[in-house]
Specification:
This protein is α+β, with helices and mostly antiparallel strands and 467 residues long. 36% of the residues lie in helices and 19% in strands. The protein has a single domain (2-464), classed as Peroxisomal Thiolase, Chain A, domain 1, CATH 3.40.47.10. The chain contains 15 helices and 18 strands. The strands form 4 sheets. Strands 1, 4, 5, 6, 7, 8, 9, 12, 13 and 14 form a 10-stranded mixed sheet that branches. Strands 3-2-15 form a 3-stranded mixed sheet. It starts with 8 loop residues before the first strand and ends in a 15-residue tail after the last strand.
Length: 467
């Protein structure tokens, strides 16, 4: 049955990332990796990380408060709040319950939703829960709110440069400028040990890097094939890369995004889609007899397809890459940070466009879905205002570069603190922007306490809360 609510989707967004980062070029030299491995090989510029006063709870407190203030949303108007995260701080108490502190003053405790966890996919699960709620008969007319929050840290070794940290808050409701095309969702879910966190005493994952890359591409192929089939069944015509203006990928590191888009071109070639011209067909023909397994291993196919996809990549993917390249993998927030980059770069020309999203979480869970970008009457929720509020350019510019030595020192302290109790932090919030929440103490009963750095005088302006 068709939903009563029309154009349900994203009304507003806010992104928060720590103001502390390490340059990938400096990290490369520090780690003794060959020059260009992290910057060209992985395609990353910089990596954000939490210092001892920040964690996934403080980042999400900041993102949610900032969203409610900057878009002038009454706290009583939130009816559902869902969190996606894979950063485990407590095995029972959800991050969502910490966020309820924001609503205390308003007296609004009537807010459904808890946390969703499966690697980098939890944010997408949370988003679908909220969208489904607004589209359902149990919707009570209020907004849904989704928070994706993660701190991605790895043990010393090749995965370490693929870390990052951020929280993104996403307001959900009808008549949205970023409307879901709910009928075109396609998933691929499977049991595999490519990346997992079995050691509850450590924040670091166990990761089979090569396997995770292959799993990601397999899930992408499967989701794209199913997405195209659903589209074709409903629309009565073939779907190809020509049918969406932008493609946004979960972005552990940029090189995988480049490979993923090229993989979609190969899919189009194999089904004879019009998006692949004659010259490209000729170059791809020698690979058409490869089995799926062989094609994942073929370096030649990877190289040729990336070359052929380059101009389309520049037009349809490159505008989505800014934040993931600058911050690194943000796990659940990573896909949405790529989408934030698109809104930042293209907000004035997005109306009418289709944007295809690919969400991947190890273990594994993956979904491809799409948005249709729209003009809306409420100027708070215009694409330009969303870009203005998020103020990504200024936030990136005003970060503090930390040396690799200090970054590693910080990781050691965080290792020690992880799962710990009975400590106070240094409470140094001098590097934090106004309006940022920070951790002050974990007491002898593991209870966590946060404070907020005072908000600037103008909370509605583009430099509200400092940023
Ligand atoms: N100059 C330019 N490029 C270089 C250089 C150099 N000096 N040195 C290496 N490279 C290239 C390599 O050729 C390779 O590129 P390619 O894939 O196009 O061949 C790239 O840099 C990376 O080098 P590898 O040797 O393959 O890297 P390594 O195996 O050491 O680590 C990996 C990469 C596996 C991604 C690791 O960082 C990791 O495990 N990360 C975490 C897992 C992950 O992010 N998986 C993705 C999906 S799951 C998720 O989102 C968590």
């Amino acid at each position: 049955m068709a939903s009563q609510q029309k154009n349900v989707g994203i009304l507003a967004m806010e992104i928060y990332f720590p103001p502390t980062c390490v340059q990938q070029e400096a990290l490369e030299a520090h780690d003794g990796a060959s020059k260009g491995k992290y910057t060209i090989g992985l395609g990353q510029d910089c990596m954000a990380f939490c210092q001892e006063v920040e964690d996934v709870i403080s980042m999400s407190l900041t993102a949610v408060s900032s969203l409610l203030e900057k878009y002038n949303i009454d706290h009583s108007q939130i009816g559902r709040l869902e969190v996606g995260s894979e950063t485990v701080i407590d095995k029972s108490k959800s991050i969502k319950t910490f966020l309820m502190q924001i609503f205390e003053k308003s007296g609004n405790t009537d807010i459904e939703g808890v946390d969703s966890t499966n690697a980098c996919y939890g944010g997408t699960a949370a988003l679908f829960n909220c969208v489904n709620w607004v589209e359902s008969s149990s919707w009570d007319g209020r907004y849904g709110l989704v928070v994706c929050t993660d701190s991605a840290v790895y043990a010393e070794g090749p995965a370490r440069p693929t870390g990052g940290a951020a929280a993104i808050a996403i307001l959900i409701g009808p008549d949205a400028p970023i409307a879901f095309e709910s009928k075109f969702r396609a998933s691929h879910m499977f049991h595999v040990y490519d990346f997992y966190k079995p050691d509850l005493a450590s924040e670091y994952p166990v990761v089979d890097g090569k396997l995770s890359q292959t799993c990601y591409l397999m899930a992408l192929d499967s989701c794209y094939t199913r997405y195209c089939k659903k589209y074709e069944k409903l629309e009565g015509k073939q779907f190809s890369l020509d049918d969406a203006e932008y493609f946004v990928f979960h972005s552990p590191y940029n090189k995988l995004v480049q490979k993923s888009f090229a993989r979609l071109l190969v899919n189009d070639f194999l089904k004879g889609a019009s998006s692949v011209d004659e010259a490209a067909k000729e170059k791809l023909a020698p690979f058409s007899t490869l089995t799926d397994d062989e094609s994942y291993q073929s370096r030649d196919l990877e190289k040729v397809s990336q070359q052929l996809a380059k101009s389309l990549y520049d037009a349809k993917v490159q505008p989505t890459t800014l934040v993931p390249k600058q911050i690194g993998n943000m796990y659940t927030a990573s896909l949405y940070a790529a989408f934030v980059s698109l809104v930042h770069n293209k907000h004035s020309s997005l109306v009418g466009n289709r944007v295809v999203m690919f969400s991947y979480g190890s273990g594994l869970t993956a979904t491809m879905f799409s948005f249709r970008m729209r003009e809306v009457d409420d100027s708070r929720f215009s694409l330009s205002n969303i870009a203005n509020v998020m103020n990504v350019g200024e936030k990136l510019k005003s970060r503090n570069e930390i040396t690799p030595e200090k970054f590693v020192e910080n990781l050691k302290l965080m290792e020690h603190r992880y799962g710990g109790k009975d400590f106070v932090t240094n409470k140094d919030c001098s590097l934090l922007w106004p309006g940022t929440y920070y951790l002050t103490e974990v007491d002898s009963k593991y209870r966590r306490f946060y404070e907020r750095k005072p908000v600037g005088p103008n909370v509605n302006g583009s430099l509200a809360n400092g940023h």
